[in-house]
Amino acid sequence: MSASATLVLIVGLGLIAWASARARAFALAPQGRNRPRPAEQGWYAALWTAIPALLIVGVWAWSKPFFVRNDVLNHPAAQDLPSEAIDRAAVLSEARDLANGAIDAAFNPLAETLAMPWVAAEQKYALVGLILAIATAVGGGAFGMLRLKPGFRAGPRVERFALMIAAAASLIAIVTTAGIVLSLVVESMRFFALVSPVEFLFGTTWAPETSAAGTAAGSYGATPLFWGTVFIGAIIAMLVAVPLGLMSAIYLTQYAKPKIRAWIKPLLEVLAGVPTVVYGYFAALTVAPAVRDIAAAVGVTSASSESALAAGVVMGVMIVPFVSSMADDALTAVPRAMRDGALALGSTTSETIRQVLLPAALPGVVGGVLLAVSRAIGETMIVVMAAGLAANLTLNPLASVTTVTAQIVQLLTGDQEFESAKTLAAFALGLVLFVVTLGLNMAALSLVKAYREAYE
Amino acid sequence: MTAAKITARDVSVYYGEKQALESVSIDIATEHVTAFIGPSGCGKSTFLRCFNRMNDTIIGARCTGRIELDGEDIYGAEMDVVQLRARVGMVFQKPNPFPKSIYENVAYGPRIHGLAMDKTELDRIVELALTRAGLWDEVKDRLSESGTSLSGGQQQRLCIARAIAVDPEVILMDEPCSALDPIATAKIEDLINQLRGRYAIVIVTHNMQQAARVSQRTAFFHLGKLIEFGETSELFTNPRAEKTKDYITGRYG
């Protein structure tokens, strides 16, 4: 019997438990206040039936292969297995694949011999597992049912279980994040064993070369990458996104009639939903050549077809809805009384916005911009497609520059050994990016939070 | 009796389809404090906000009839709403100082209207406004602190100083004490008494004792209509309308 059939069986048993416990609630106390709530009773019995049994299925799925393997090794034919661990494992895995039908013929004749015992062991332990699961379900169900008496409150126990499930779900997200950070840190440590952190953080030449495992070749000064990231994400993109986003938020919150706002706001949000790779095409195929042609037309001959300007401008446009919606929130949070106060003193709308609303909303707006920067510097597709890969340390927006994210992509694409400095460098870059965006997010959130509290 | 500062004739206000004020006519005199009283939703605040066209900022609000300030139609094409609001100041229900320093709060109006030639003159205007609002002695040593750091009553007097600083002719007060404790309320009422005569003051209040204490003339509104308007002492002791009598004796409201 397959695992999925076992699961269906357990769920079926749970349903039966649910229905009978529900019926029992009515039987125990046909009416009156003392009657337990039927739905709670049902769930209580169903959970006792299904959850321990499902746990057994899980544990069994994990431990069965060990039992099977052990059985096969105890088979008389297994005496002929080679003593070398790696050869042994090869034969055994061939036998397993034969038994599961994954392959039709084996390279090793011994595997053919062991396939039959393997199938027998699989069947035996599958049956054991099934019996264990059913026994647990029945036992658990019976236990649950026996506890259902008048006056027994199943509700809080069911609630507690629901709480545990919810807590476990949120824990998974946190544990995953911690795991990601840990793996970044561990891999980065391995990189920093090969290349000194000082060279990595402050060196100005970025020229990683392929090398054997455990060695470093080329130079790993990441400053040009950091500069390129800041230049595109925090400077050029923000020069585009902050004025556009802020002005559109001002228009939407202060000037636009409700009807117009109801149209424009969703349209602006559509921009935020465009996949970044589409922006990448746009940057690489339309904006970058246009930038080059315009530069050439005004006499700049050195303009590259991949430029910081093109990538930064497109990224800025991508970020506009983000800045706009943060600024919108900040401006809306300024109490109406503030605006009325300014208007009642005879301020024009623009005076009110410039002198009262914007200063009042500033912390919220700054928080939004910081979040936007953190998004921009983590953005990958646009820079991979439009900014180029040349690690130039330059102030010229028409030159090609590269960013941390673009280099990570570059370092990790293709068949690479995950042991050399070249690939490990990607983790160190990722770690720097992670630390910086985390810092930005925390600063931004605390600003926004302090701002919200000021007006509550 | 001198000429009216503000004359309103047949003023009706609509919020969308809903009529909030029905054909109200009234004269506001310079030398008096005029109180608008009435139960919640009777249209008294709505009417007040017509005098400086603050209803313009509410989407869907519409005003008909004629309101004149010194004979000029305030809803006329000639009227610059910015100038109007400089002449007709307003104090709101909840103190709403700007998130700026005390000095900047008061200097804001004179700055945007270009009332001061230089810093010295601006300083003088700020001091005068704060003095008239009875706040100068309390804040003169901390003018650079934030306006929001003051207590509620001080904040409200700061807002009055802010309104006075642009040298208005009329001051509208929309339940200025409803967010304040009794002591702060008493201070504001004293202040209103001192300001009387210099400015035409119109105060909306829920509190009948307050209307009796600070005003010389009182208008009673009910369900968007002006029920009765007259000398405060007369209206409270000898109301003509049955509804007024019921309201001031506490039958409803």
Task: Describe the secondary structure blueprint for this structure.
The complex is a heterodimer of chains A (456) and B (253).
Chain A: H1 3-28, H2 38-74, H3 85-100, H4 109-147, H5 154-194, H6 197-202, E1 206-209, E2 217-220, H7 223-255, H8 258-273, H9 276-297, H10 308-333, H11 336-344, H12 349-378, H13 381-386, H14 404-412, H15 421-454
Helix pairs in contact in A: 1-2, 1-4, 2-4, 2-5, 3-4, 5-15, 7-10, 7-12, 8-10, 9-10, 10-12, 11-12, 12-15, 14-15
Chain B: E1 4-15, E2 18-29, E3 33-37, H1 44-48, E4 61-69, E5 72-73, H2 81-87, E6 88-91, H3 102-113, H4 119-132, H5 136-139, H6 152-164, E7 170-174, H7 182-195, E8 200-204, H8 208-214, E9 217-222, E10 225-231, H9 232-237, H10 242-248
Parallel strand pairs in B: 3-8, 3-9, 6-7, 7-8
Antiparallel strand pairs in B: 1-2, 1-4, 4-5, 9-10
Total of helices of chain B = 10
Q: Give the termini distance of chain A in whole angstroms.
A: 61 Å
Strand content of chain B: 25-35%
Count of beta strands of chain B: 10
The secondary-structure element order of chain A is HHHHHHEEHHHHHHHHH
Low-confidence stretches of chain B: none
The pLDDT mean of chain A sits at 87
Tell me, briefly, the overall form of chain A: flat
**Rg measurement of chain A, Å:** 32 Å
Morphology call of chain B = globular
Return the CATH class of the largest domain in chain A.
Answer: Mainly Alpha
- Helical content of chain A (DSSP H or I, runs of 4+): over 70%
The CATH architecture of the largest domain in chain A can be given as Orthogonal Bundle
The average pLDDT of chain B is: 91
Q: Can you list the strand order of the major beta sheet of chain B?
A: 6-7-8-3-9-10
User: Number of DSSP strands of chain A?
Assistant: 2
Radius of gyration of chain B: 18 Å
